Amino acid sequence: MTDWNQVEATVSIGGSECKFTTIYLKQVFNGHHVFDIGVLCPPLPGENIWYNERESMIAMQGQSVVIRMKHVISGDESIFKGIITEIGMDGERGVSGTIHYRGCSPTILLESGKTMDSFMDYTLSAIVGEVVKNYGNGVEIVNKPLFNEQIPYAQMHEETGYEFLRRIAYQYGEWFYYDGQKLHFGNPQKDKDETVTYDVDLDKVSFGSRVTPFHYSRHDYMAEDDRPLYADDSASVNGINTYLANAISTSESVYQSPTTLYNKAVVGHPVHMNRLLEFEKGRDTASLVWLKGKSKTCRVRIGEPIAVKIPASMCDRRDLGKYRVMSVIHEVDKNGVYSNTFEGIPASMERIPVNNVVLPDARPMLAKVISNTDPENIGRVQVQFVWQENQNKTTNWIRVRSLDAGTSKAVPKNRGFVFVPEKGDQVLVDFEFGNPSCPYVSGSMFHTNNGEGGKSENSVKSIITRSGHLIEFNDDEGGEWGITIEDRKKNTIKIDTSGDNILITANKDVTITAGETMTLNAKNLNINVEENTNVNVKDSANIDVGKNIKQTSTNLEEVINDKLSLNIGKNFNCKSGDIDIETFKGDIILKSASKALLQGADDARVSKG
Predict the structure, then answer these.
(1) Per-residue pLDDT tens for 201-248?
(2) How far is CA 153 from CA 117, 123, 169, 259, 438, in A?
(3) Which residues contact 13 (CB under 8 A, 6 or more apart)?
(4) Domains of the chain (ranges plus CATH)?
(5) Which of 9, 85, 240, 498 could bond 103 through an S-S bridge, CB–CB 3.0 to 4.6 Å?
(6) Is 539 left (phi over 0), alpha (psi -120 to 50) or beta?
(7) In degrees rounded to 5, what are phi and psi of residue 279?
(8) Which range is the signal sequence, renumbered to this chain (predicted)?
């Protein structure tokens, strides 16, 4: 082993170089980097930390920090840029004390508080750009995601900008990390490796492998096409070396039971889900083999590959493989000696394992309907959450839950309850599987300006449309107990439960049409007509009256085109001012079973011609 003190470190704060006693810098993939720089004041009067104004020390927060680690001989250098977020002043046993400048990578600027936002029909790159612009407080990012398809809807849900970016990077299989100087969303293609050798650059090395389940599938559903989506683990993974191939083979033999889960990310096409499952499988594959070590070279950098060698004196197979550094802790102790500890995965893998992502669990929220003019005509609506109003944003077209919805042989469309909320309605929006990017309307809500409840004792249930058409069910047995169907113009069908009556009221006409037979059964029948009555019968009309028929009219005219037959069981009485009976052709025959009497008060004549 050569001397470990091969690296010189320098620290500058706010552009000015600072003398330090210790440095601790932890860099992790897909996480914030943190540092702690210790500055020891000498034990001289006026120069200990307590002599300094605490306010001026606190004012150091927010200052920029640059840590440079440089190899004395080769000149290789690693640079870290961060921000002071905390000042610590420690004293013990009368020593003048130590100042600690603690802070994070500039990624901390994306942690400006949990918030809500949404993105409709954005690409992943556009989402990242807007989040960094609105919530990054000036942080810069290299924005080059591999997944470039349009995403129908993505919702930032009670997350900081950093938490949201970390989540969508995980869901869409993207790299997301800070390399010490730049924040990357997407693979920066840093593939130039540094060779490090055990017992030369590495004081300690640990190589390992594990097994993990691989027989899994994902499913989803596209409502726009009524299409179930399915993806399985059959996709191949790029970058598999011999270590990984053996670990995969063992894993598949150990875990043979297939599993399935709902897809974690919103996709706009079935092909996209297959790609996302391929990304997920790649992440799991990358986690099968790892390398850990302790080194004295600052050429071990976060996100970059190293080629690890074993000395020739130890083995014939010197190459231990190439590994991409997923975490590294740099330390400079009080003696000025530099070292680091690190972890890595096979550098050939395109996907990075991520373990610190929290998926939000979205709960129902109130929203307002912005539009119900669904371009696909399938009953969807666009809604706006309260928090979207100032952003002038909405959801995409989302489905509306119904009590019953479907199809049948007789009804290809709209079988069930069709009640699409109106524009301006307040609705309750829930989320499929708690995924904030999968909203749907679960119901509508009344509020103080548009609801009046079910009247006294909750006696009234009703359905009222936008124009005022009404179906009302009244359970007030001491009042208007019954059912009312009424349109906006007060044309009404009223079922009076109290009086056992049905009342039909029309402002103009009532037309009843029966394809075959119409039957009216009643104890009494009253027909009141203010003007005219027309009865048209194309074939026959039979009127059977058990007792009496009474007709009253100013005039009565009957026209019979063929025959008239009158059969009277007993008496026939006909009284008139004048009677004129005339046949246009043929005879008049009067017959009597007994006597025939023709009698005139003044005269009686029978004449010819």
Answers:
(1) 899 999 999 999 988 888 888 888 888 888 887 778 888 999 999 999
(2) 11, 10, 15, 27, 8
(3) 60, 63, 64, 65, 84, 101
(4) 7-108 (2.30.300.10), 117-130+140-176+187-346 (no CATH), 365-444 (2.40.50.230), 460-505 (no CATH)
(5) 85
(6) alpha
(7) -60, -45
(8) none
Residue with tokens 């083995």: 315
* Residue type, position 198, single letter: Y
Three-state SS at 125: helix
Token pair 């500055």 is found at 39
Instruction: Please report the DSSP string for 211-266 in residue order.
Output: -----EEEEEEETTTTEEEEEETTS--TT--HHHHHHHHHHHHH----EEEE-SS-
Contact, 506 vs 491, CB < 8 A? Answer: yes
Q: Tell me how far apart the terminal alpha carbons of the chain are, to the nearest angstrom.
A: 158
What is the C-alpha to C-alpha distance for residues 374 and 369, in angstroms, rounded to an integer? 12
209-218, 381-390, 515-524, 537-546, range with the lowest pLDDT: 537-546
